[in-house]
Amino acid sequence: MAEEGIPGRVVVVGTGLIGTSIALAMRKRGAEVLLTDRDAASLRMAVELGAGQALPDGAAEEPADLAVLAVPPAAVAVTLLDAQKRGLAKVYTDVASVKALPLAQAAQLGCDLSVFVAGHPLAGRERSGPAAAQDDLFLGRPWALCAPPEAKPEAVEAVTALARACGAEPVTVDAEEHDRAVALVSHGPHVVSAAVAARLTVADDVALGLAGQGVRDVTRIAASDPRLWIGILSANSEPVAEVLEAVATDLAVAASLLRDGSEGAAAHVADLLLRGNAGRARIPGKHGGDQKTYAVVPVMIPDRPGELAMIFQAAGIAGVNIEDVAIEHSPGRPLGVLEISVKPEAAERLAEELRARGWSVPG
Amino acid sequence: MAEEGIPGRVVVVGTGLIGTSIALAMRKRGAEVLLTDRDAASLRMAVELGAGQALPDGAAEEPADLAVLAVPPAAVAVTLLDAQKRGLAKVYTDVASVKALPLAQAAQLGCDLSVFVAGHPLAGRERSGPAAAQDDLFLGRPWALCAPPEAKPEAVEAVTALARACGAEPVTVDAEEHDRAVALVSHGPHVVSAAVAARLTVADDVALGLAGQGVRDVTRIAASDPRLWIGILSANSEPVAEVLEAVATDLAVAASLLRDGSEGAAAHVADLLLRGNAGRARIPGKHGGDQKTYAVVPVMIPDRPGELAMIFQAAGIAGVNIEDVAIEHSPGRPLGVLEISVKPEAAERLAEELRARGWSVPG
């Protein structure tokens, strides 16, 4: 039995990472989930993962409470039209990373927009497909909701309930505003990351050997699936193009200022770096509030089982809450530095506890 | 007493992050370290951190084995000339992020290049100053060495011994080649990161609320100190300008292709994303070898002390070696997902062990 107030019977069209993760989250809340995907192997895997049952090919006996169209942006409108013709559900939503184009196409195709509320859960992974799905993928994440003017209140309620049931925070936003926002904080940075990584195809081994953490971070998302991303970029072309042009202009200007070499020119480049500082500082902290500043306690760790457990045990004994951890591996050596982020007031207590137990903690 | 084969008496000019870290590393190996910095507070802090003794103002009684000039790129040559006039050491090196300009300026000023070997340890932190210094900062990192043609073999030996004593891997490289390499893998990406972050100064709260891990990673290094970086960029202007122009061109072309909107245009944008995949894959893995693929085991963790210790203890009991860890915080909730990277063959064993002990590990 589904928990009260959530859609009890859900159809998920498209069992990729997002569709399967939603299915898993709704199953966990007790909903009945029916799955469909034009790729039979993907559908089978999602069923095996416990995400739900395969939707029978024929017409549904009774419309589900909600159908989630987890398909690429360009496929949303036609999938909606088809689903509505089959009478799959009472209410429909999608999960595409762009919102204006699918809504416009759906209107053009004559879909019933009184029962469609477009959605975009802001969650993802570098891996794709049902195998990477997680029932907690949306926990605490924003879930953008764009209701067309025709949408009935009960449709908005059902999709809002879906987002909440998946653990996300629903954010009502206009479709055009959404698309400009994600161009700025997601789609644009994605192409820039790819352009930096693309330079490395001409790098020699000396250059690659000098690569540090900075270029690794800047290019991490350049490892994503181009097939998925070209669909997103094409469907949000105008806002993304604007961001890319602005970045390209800043970079071209910086290049010519560096070539100029005067002190005034250097001051202009420094100004770009300062604007970078200011923009970076505006990104909210991981916990959704202001960016928190933690103290980092670095500990040298031998690369063997058991060591991390003992370190965290020592932290527990010291009563220190660990906010974040990262391992900085030393290339070519079986050694690493564990960086433990804690509240500033707890740093010295943790460092002393660890030193007292024989770990090397620089002062 | 210094360990055998390492410089026994070292002068460090400039007690910032890098200078103080070298001083700490050499002190740990038993070397006598003398420190100097034109900023008295920075010098005092380095002395208090145990990095060495303050260098007396007058002429040194006897030249040290080695002087490390840990000053900005533009200050290297004049600092070298001054140090050589004072007879500070038998051999000199620097740590600047660019190599061709300081070497050319040193030659122009008439420095004795037979006892100078330029160096660049590839290590750093987002924080700067002596307080951020660590004696293990260089462990396993590359340390580029650029010896001018005049350099005596014993000078090369002394600077190589310094790099090794700090735990780094010396890499002999031509100065111009070094500068082109770091423009590609460090200086260029730095400016690009700043340009992406600079866009966020015009973002509204909706956009900032939709920011995910991707834009956080791309803009992490945009938080660095502009005063430090403008010196580096200005001293390596030509190679950096080339990288920025290439990236700017790729972005401007991508923007106009997106505006074009044809399928052929989309294919060209997809090609940039594919080149991004290829370039990203060329970055060596953290251990210095090929990029290793680990399996990631996600575990839901309550945000309280002791939990991590128990998880790592369970991993130890299962005999699983942990290659990397990261905590994915769920914004707005006291919950997180611990992502444990392990060798693919160990993933299922770890997942089962954790499930058996009551943790939630998605399949």
Structure keywords:
homodimer; 363 residues; alpha/beta; Rossmann fold; Alpha-Beta Plaits; 3 domains; 5-stranded parallel sheet; 11 strands; globular
Descriptive notes:
The structure is a homodimer of 363-residue chains. Chain A is α/β, with parallel strands linked by helices and 363 residues long. The first copy, chain A, has three domains: 9-173, 3-Layer(aba) Sandwich (Rossmann fold); 179-237, no CATH class; 295-356, 2-Layer Sandwich (Alpha-Beta Plaits), CATH 3.30.70.260. In chain A, 45% of the residues lie in helices and 16% in strands. The first copy, chain A, is built from 13 helices and eleven strands. A five-stranded parallel sheet of chain A has the order 3-2-1-4-5, with helices on both faces. In chain A, strands 6-7-8 form a three-stranded mixed sheet, with helices on one face. In chain A, helix 6 (175-199) crosses helix 10 and helix 10 packs antiparallel against helix 11. The longest helix of chain A is centred in the middle third of the chain and has 25 residues, at 175-199. Chain A is globular and about 65 Å long. The first copy, chain A, starts with 8 loop residues before the first strand and ends in a 7-residue tail after the last helix. The model of chain A is unreliable at 286-291 and 330-334 (pLDDT under 50). At the A-B interface, helix 6, helix 7, helix 8, helix 9 and helix 10 of A face helix 6, helix 7, helix 8, helix 9 and helix 10 of B. Chains A, B: Pfam families: PDH_C, PDH_N. Chains A, B: Its EC number is 1.3.1.12. Chains A, B: Pathway: Amino-acid biosynthesis; L-tyrosine biosynthesis; (4-hydroxyphenyl)pyruvate from prephenate (NAD(+) route): step 1/1.
